[in-house]
Amino acid sequence: MATKAFAPAKINLTLHVTGRRDDGYHLLDSLVVFADVGDTLEFTPGPELSISVTGEHAAGVPTDDRNLVWKAAEAAGWTGHIALNKVLPHGGGIGGGSSDAAATLRMITEQGTEIPDGTALSLGADVPVCMAAKATRMRGIGERLEPVSLPHLPALLVNPGVEVPTGAVFSALQSRDNPAMPDDIPAFETPDGCAAWLQNQRNDLEPPAKGLAPEVVRVLDELADTKEALLARMSGSGSTCFALYPTMKAAHFAAYEIGAAHPDWWCRATQLS
Asked: What is the enclosing helix (H) or strand (E) of 256?
């Protein structure tokens, strides 16, 4: 019998790079939220592992052991067919592959299979936070997770259709020892209050990503110019950017404006939480 799962887009409202360990892993301090748009997966148990990929961003997604979904299923000892509907652009800084892997691990644990400790982190720094799939402060190399209470945040996600390699962005980083976020994150009552606080925080990967992909600069400029935009920032290592708005009506209006001007861009109004 088939089981369905949802893999939401992961958005880094902040991403402070605070150091680097001797083994090369970067230390992060990031406020992470999740969208109500994402990939969907359907799992049908069987004797062998296989994956099929459909959807608007299916092109180029591997269907073998290079896929994080495959790695997650294999690590948990699950076999069968996985049908992945790829809605999220890959290489876009919104955790598409990590969220897919996390959804796979969640499905397997919900069916009563115990997964070895450290499995999620072994698949990637974003997989543990994607397992939580709710507003979280993520620190260390992705292993230190602390739930955060945030208001629902109306937002617009825009990807210009360019992939920004994570390794190249980190290599172009000027400083790897930057200040963390404040110890305490305030209790925000409105999107406006949250956005005002976020203005004083950072995504340290945004400047190097802008240098590697000028399209990111263009997207951020266009988002900042939309009516009622409270904040425009890049997510993760790029190239997806987001803007926050006071209402979903404003987010949908901005989506209409940008979508009409750039029909080749991936553009989704969403609510982050």
From this structure: helix 248-261
User: Which secondary-structure segment (H or E) carries 171?
Assistant: helix 166-171
- Is the N-terminal amide bond of 239 cis, ω within 30° of 0? yes
List, in order, residues 6 or more apart from 266 with CB less than 8 Å away. Answer: 89, 92, 157, 158, 159, 160, 161, 240
Buried b (16+ CB within 10 A) or exposed e, 149-176: ebbebbbbbbbbebebebeebbeebeee
In angstroms, the Cα distances linking 146 to 73, 91, 136 are: 26, 26, 5
Q: Give catalytic residues, as residue numbers.
A: 10, 126
Amino acid, single-letter form, for residue 234: M
Q: Give me the domains of the chain, ranges plus CATH numbers.
A: 3-147 (3.30.230.10), 153-272 (3.30.70.890)
Cβ proximity of 39 and 159 under 8 Å: no
- Residue of 93, 97, 78, 111 lying closest to 39 (CA atoms): 97
Where does the pLDDT of residue 90 fall: very low under 50, low under 70, confident under 90, or very high at 90 and above? confident
Predicted local confidence at residue 91, as pLDDT: 80
Within 8 A by CB and 6+ apart from 65, the residues are 71, 74
Q: Around Cβ 272, how many Cβ atoms within 10 Å?
A: 26
Give yes or no for a contact between 29 and 269, defined as CB atoms under 8 angstroms apart.
no
